[in-house]
Each structure stands twice: as C-alpha cells, then as structure tokens.
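WARN retry 2 of 3 for item q-0093 after timeout on previous attempt; input resubmitted unchanged.
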Amino acid sequence: MREILKYNCIRLKVNGEFACTGELSKKKQLREGVRDLARYVGNYIERQIDGTVILQSPMLLEFSNVRHAFTTRQITGTQVGEKFSELDMSLNSPNFPEHFEFFAKAFEINPRSCVFSHQTHSKNIKIVDHSDVNEPYWKRKMNDIDGLITNEPGIFLVTTYADCMPIVAYDSNRQIVGVAHSGWRGTLLEIAKELILKMNEEFNCSPQDIFVTVGPSIGPESFEVGSDVASEFSVKFGKRVVIERSGRFYVDLWKAVEISLSTVGIIHLEFSNIDTYKATEYFYSYRKEKTKKRFAAIVGIIK
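OK item q-0093 returned
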C-alpha cells in the first residue's frame, strides 16, 4: 500500500521514481507569501487569505506564472461567519455567487474571468478561451464537460469536488494548463490520460514537460466498492489497485491514475495524499456526508 507522507515531504514522481523533497525554497515561499514554517496538510501547503483557507501544491508553487488553489470548507473571521459558516463552491447552490466572489476577492482573481464545467463523470474535455467568458459568470457552465484546458493568460479554470480526484496539469514549456474531474467512472474512462493526450493533440505538449498534481480525494483506505466495481478496476488496471480486507473491497484510485498517466509518459507526478473521507474538517465528502456542497480546484496562467 502507498506510504502516506505528511507535513514536510511531498510525494513527487520524477524520472519514474518517487522522491521525497523538503519544504519550498525560501525564495519561492517569499514570492508566494508563504511563511518559512508553512503548515502542511498531507503533502499540500495550507494558507489563510482574508478569511479563506486554501491548500496549494508545492510543485505548482515552483512556477511563478501559474496560480492555483484548492478551496476548503473553512472560513475565518467573525464578520464572514455571520454571513455563512462554510465556503461552498457548488454551482447548484443559490448562494454560489456570494461564496465564489468572497473567495475570488481573497484570491485576487476576477470572477468574470473564470470558466466552469458542468461535470457528468464523462471523459469530455474542452479547450476554452476568452470567447467562453460571458455574463453572468455563474451561469456559464461548459455542459457535459469534465476537463478544461487553456493557453490564454487571465482565464481561470474551475472544477468542483466532494471525493472525486482533481487532476491539475501544467506544461511549463508551452504555458498550457488543464484540469480534470475524475471520479471512479472517469478514472475507468481514463480522463487524466485523455487530458494529457488532448494537451498534446491541440498544443503539441510533451508529456515530459507536463507537471501533474492529484488533489484531495477519497483515498484507498476509504473507497469501499462492490465486487462488480472492484472487478472492473482489476481488469482495467491490474490487481494492485484493488484491496480486499475483511471480506470487503477497496479501490485505490490514486494508484489507478498513476498507472494510467504512466502509459502516456508523465514523469512529474505529485499526490496530495489527502483523503477527503478522513479530512472532512477541510473538505466535503459525498461518500461520508451525502452532502451537495463542494470544494473547488482553480487554476490559471497569470498575465
């Protein structure tokens, strides 16, 4: 079973091997406003910004021209708490504009520069540009889309989650960014692999130049499935993604996506190692809470 690394270590796959690296360099920390003694949650860095609590990938923080955040449910400050007790990024919530604009102000992005996906557990991926930016922003959802890619600075891609895997990919050479929503169905469809292939097809991205981080999602100790789903994963990815314990079956989605991405040549691969089922103080878990609330992954190229 994968070793779960915590705090001062990130699980980063480079040149086919997992390596353990320390904290961000002080130069990078200062550039991103991260204090010398950053708090780690799993392998990600926690930041508190104007009432919001976000997590960030140490790997992506190494690149000055890409901005990203994984929102959490947590908010800080009494004035904010009087309005709402948790941050909810669900586009289906009637209060979504208020919640998203609160986050966007703290993160210093324009909501009107954001593009959202209407996720259906497909492997459909769309290239987006400024023609996809219209008013009102909260009603602009890319229908039946689970992956977004852009090469245009100033556009931020937004996808939402409550146990499914956020997969963020960045080509440091061609300045292309993409994100995919991968639940168990999307993992069987290999949407992470499709994201890389689409980046290659549309922008000639080389897998060796693409850095991928897999965000907070349900972990291998928590994702219990029936024998039918376990069999599908075993056939697709091999027996090592299925764990049988006390007569019950569990699927390691993280291992499945690692196997899938290895087939297209990804060598820069990082896992948050944050199990949303276990970390409900930070993230929503549909499996545990049956909630309609969501957290979000936001990523874009800076102008």
